[in-house]
Specification:
Elements: H1 3-24, H2 28-55, E1 59-60, E2 66-76, E3 79-86, E4 92-98, E5 101-111, H3 113-117, E6 123-132, E7 144-147, H4 156-162, H5 164-167, E8 170-176, E9 180-181, E10 186-192, E11 197-201
Antiparallel strand pairs: 1-6, 2-3, 2-10, 3-4, 5-6, 5-8, 5-9, 6-7, 10-11
Length: 214
């Protein structure tokens, strides 16, 4: 993802050196032209780098793909240890949740037809894991939420949600899983759907919910 910008950055360095050599040779106008190109390339890298840094926290989105597994173990009265495993990378995060129900949410990025024509494809990022008391009505009322990704770079999703210029290129959306019960030694699989996350209990071949990596 960073390769094109690294090429542009290298072009800026080379063009700056050429401008300096032409200045020393007394070719002032040629030096000014090369310096202008170097400044434009530098400005492009400066503006685009934070955007790519943010996009690097997203993964390619394919409908129906499994993106995570969540495994629960009871550690006390109304308290559970939740192990979230990212798929296919296998990266794990562990949380301690209180309550009886949980939900996971993800950000999704779509693209305008012009942006898609340049090769940009839909992407997603797991965003929040929430827990609430069992039987709670009213969505997130009384829920405790954990952020799954640290902020990095320039938040393209937020910009597209609030700024019309970005919304012409990026189509942001939020994907939500349904509230699911927490129980001891239960594992769930999370899959991408068009406008939501499909969350289903996953059982091992012997019929019991399996532990992580089983």
């Amino acid at each position: 993802m960073y390769a094109p910008l690294l090429v542009v950055a290298g072009f800026a360095v080379v063009t700056t050196l050429i401008a300096w050599s032409r200045w020393l040779a007394g070719r002032r106008w040629a030096a000014a032209g090369n310096l202008l190109l170097a400044l434009l390339a530098t400005a492009l890298v400066t503006m685009a780098w934070p955007v790519l840094q943010h996009l690097s926290s997203y993964q390619p989105a394919v409908r129906g793909q499994a993106v995570a597994e969540v495994f629960f173990e009871r550690v006390g009265a109304g308290r559970f240890r939740a192990t979230l495993t990212r798929l296919p990378s296998g990266r794990m995060q562990v949380f301690e949740l209180a309550g009886g129900e949980w939900r996971i949410e993800a950000r999704a990025l779509g693209w305008s037809p012009r942006a898609a024509a340049l090769g940009l494809r839909p992407r997603y990022r797991l965003e929040r894991l929430s827990a609430r008391p069992a039987g709670t009505a009213g969505g997130t009322a009384g829920a405790v939420t954990f952020v799954l990704e640290e902020p990095r770079g320039r938040d393209v999703w937020l910009l597209a949600s609030t700024a019309s210029d970005w919304s012409r290129i990026v189509q942001p959306s939020m994907l939500e899983g349904t509230w699911q019960p927490m129980d001891h030694v239960v594992r769930f699989e999370v899959r991408l759907e068009d406008a939501a996350l499909a969350v289903r209990p996953r059982s091992s071949p012997d019929g019991d919910a399996g532990a992580p990596g089983r």
